[in-house]
Amino acid sequence: MKYIILITTLFTSLFSYSQKLENSLLWKISGNGLKADSYLYGTIHITCDASLDENTIKALDKTQQLYLELDMDDKSMQMQMMKYMMMKDGTKLSTLLNEDDFRAVDDFLKKHMSMSAKMFDGFKPFIVSTMLYPKMIDCSFQSVESELMRVTKEQNEEIYGLETVEDQMNVFDTISYEIQAQELVKMAKSDLEKDKAELAKMMEVYKNKDIEGMLEMLDDSENKITSENQDVLLNNRNQNWIPLMVKTMKEKPTFFGVGAAHLAGEKGVIKLLRKQGFKVEAVK
């Protein structure tokens, strides 16, 4: 169930604040009083190949702890998540949708999950959508976060989170339930075809390490959850992470792994760290 909490999205800048960022997922953070380098890595939450390259393995070896968006090593994480899966104020999917659309979602979920939409009537619609992510790829579900955790555990190092489950799940109380419900209807009526195509394109852009291209995909997406809510999905969270990242790096060299969507852009993690006085450079 861990993939339910994961959300993907991305951003831009390198030689100067107005220039484009290089195509890179791994970035070295140095300067501004740091005693040792830390590293920032852009992940993808669902992929067919989560293998890490040599530079990334070396960066993990040089650092002393791993920070992901969430502490995914926390045994209580799934129980915490369950507390925040429901819509507030007793809102129901069956009341957000007309009868025909609810029937379309019901048939869709019966086909792909062997469960009725009635079982998820009070769930945040986006949460239901994430349950279908593994159906969007023609391969075994893999997660870059899981691979980062595997290496970190082999090194007998600790894993932490930049935010709590509550922080992340509350994002989907900020985004209109109506929009979430309509996006679920679109998914059902296309029978995942549009979603499969978009995810395949995103995985290809990620493979090319093109973080700016990822941002363009979000801006152009027909999915209103991502295209119209980048402040709550990305920008606000990025800003909230910076004080903890700065504090953590000053204490010990740290490897940060966050969704690649968070790296670029004027309000992305790379530029925010540079504005704090750190040198952030692509590792080739």
From TrEMBL:
Reading the lineage from the top rank, the first entry is Bacteria
Q: What is the lineage of its organism?
A: Bacteria, Pseudomonadati, Bacteroidota, Flavobacteriia, Flavobacteriales
Which InterPro entries does the record cross-reference, listed alphabetically? Answer: TraB/PrgY/GumN_fam, YbaP-like
Name of the protein this chain belongs to? TraB family protein
**Alphabetical list of Pfam families matching this protein:** TraB_PrgY_gumN (PF01963)
